[in-house]
Design goal:
InterPro entries: UreE, UreE_C_dom, UreE_N, UreE_N_sf
Subcellular location: Cytoplasm
Helix content: 10-25%
Function: Involved in urease metallocenter assembly. Binds nickel. Probably functions as a nickel donor during metallocenter assembly.
Structural class: alpha+beta
Family: Belongs to the UreE family.
CATH topology of the largest domain: HSP40/DNAj peptide-binding domain
GO molecular function, one term: nickel cation binding
Strand order of the largest sheet: 2-6-5-1-4-3
């Protein structure tokens, strides 16, 4: 099994691809497979949240590119900016990971949240797409007593 323990910030081109959904990209310990089927073990620093395009350094020296796998999402659009902000507030109040785009919000598929958004007047539709939620306002310094001071945190994945 290929071992991966660190992020890579150099200029070398990736030699392999690792496609993961968002839940998997929030785990610092994970057994999975590269796109070519090779088994890998991720042992990253606790609190690491991988993003599509990140690169990792494997124990054998290979650079592995992370790709965000498509997953089942809900996209909410509203009649105006006020209604969209209101929907975003209610999602944030529930500590839900949210991807923000031009005129839309995306969340992982959840029928309870879909009902809430519809009740707030949003037009909600299902789609399959990569999920890249906001890291949060305090991504580089937000911490809790039980966590390290530099650890990014999305509450839904704590």
């Amino acid at each position: 099994m290929l071992l991966i323990e660190s992020l890579y910030t150099g200029d070398a081109a990736p030699a392999a691809r690792l496609e993961l959904n968002f839940d998997a990209r929030t785990k610092s310990r994970l057994r999975t497979r590269l796109a070519d089927g090779e088994e890998v073990g991720l042992f990253l620093p606790r609190g690491t949240i991988l993003r599509g395009g990140d690169r990792l350094l494997a124990q054998d020296g290979r650079v592995v590119e992370v790709a965000s796998a498509p997953e089942d999402l809900l996209e909410a659009r509203c009649a105006d900016a006020f209604a969209l902000a209101r929907a975003a507030y209610h999602l944030g109040n529930r500590h839900v990971a949210v991807q923000v785009g031009e005129g839309w919000l995306r969340i992982q598929a959840d029928h309870v949240l879909e009902t809430m958004l519809t009740g707030l007047g949003a037009q909600v539709h299902a789609l399959a797409a990569p999920f890249e939620p906001e890291a949060g306002a305090y991504a580089h310094g937000h911490h809790h007593a039980e966590r390290g001071a530099t650890e990014a945190k999305i509450h839904q994945y704590s």
